[in-house]
Amino acid sequence: MVLWDRIINHQNQKSKSLLFTSIHPSDVLALRSLWLEWLVCAVHVPPWYTDEWSALSVHNLVAYRMETVGMVCNILRCYLTWWLFQQYMVSDLPMRHAVTRITTVPFGHVFALKRAVNDWNAVTYLTILWGFFIVFFAYLFRSSEITACLVSGPKHFSCEQREAQVWLTPSGDEFQKINDQYIWNAAWFIVITMTTVGYGDISPDTN
Question: Model-level pTM?
Answer without folding.
Answer: 0.72
